[in-house]
Sequence to fold (401 residues):
Amino acid sequence: MPLTLTTFDDAITTPTNPTFSQEIFDSIIDNLYSHKPTLLICSIVCKSWLPRCRYYLFSTVDLTPKLVKFLTSSPHSLNTIVPYIKDAFLGGAWLPAQREEYDQVISLVLNLDGVRGLSIETWSWDFISPISKGLILNANGIIFQNITRLHLQYLRFPSFDVLATAISSFSNIEDLSFDNVTWDQCEHQISSPILFPQLKKLHIRSSLVQPILGWLFGSMITTAQALHSLSLPELLSSDIHVVGHLLRTLGPSLRHFEVGFLVHNYDNQDMRNLSDAIDFSYNRGLRTLRLHHLTLYQLPPTNHDQPLASPVSWLVPFLSNVASSLVELSLYMWLSQEAHLDLIDWPALSHVLTHPSFGGLDMVQFQVLGLREGRDDLKGWLVSRLSTWQAARNVVQVVFV
Fold:
């Protein structure tokens, strides 16, 4: 979790003559990087320990109005704490009455020279003052040239044009994430696509996929990008052909791909043609593949004479398209009893996993939701169904989520 600052006494400045070299102390502090209380104690042991402790204590900071007020009211803090901030978190359900406070927060954030990662969460553009809106839309601040990681979560904008204008100010983004980002107006047309030449990682979840992809890569997605990682865990069936086109454009640059399908009717035309629309033969550099929303739990059919259709009948043909040497395959499944596993065609899946594309797999991980954690027999259920795949016992892993 990001650190919310609490004040503490200045470090002890009494000179010390350590028996060990400073590098040894630094190594010890490095191993405490995730334990904030211990780091706080170490920071007041001696002056030589303080810089290393600050490196970890303030590398990720939650910029609350209280903290910003403390930093801006103390030149000493600005000089000794701010230079260590590398990742800033900004959010917390802003209200219109807090505009003046958050003007100070935004003003500080936009001029943090050392920050490389920015996470913005839980606010609406309408609650920001006109002054701060102008600073953001006009890219008035050092941060717009320095940020390489931008993560947006639970944000609302009045239009897609405002969203696109605000983000396009960050010219050197390598890692871009949209999670529950919405806008009010239905029109998504942007005069021209924005190019992020350094973009290597893109994540879109619970947000409209097609407008964002069209804006980033052009309406026809013809501009090749050097994306290494693409995560789209909640696709609609109408998104499938657009994503397939993007994958073909990305070609061998893609290393990591996550995808999931939010479809009510898995027997519709888009899902039947899924293996044709999303063709991995162009992505020969692909090394990790993660498939979300494999929902095996099903309500009983209203017509008991009609057999229950499998919601994952697309899985085996989809994996058959893999043409690269995968090292990791992850399947996120929801089930509540062993019988639900029978909705997967295990003999066909075992046959696919014997193909050369899966010969280098180090791990096939089943992330399971719906069963009680600690079910040791679950791995046995899976391995027995993959019995014709000799590597199953050594490669299959189970994680309860």
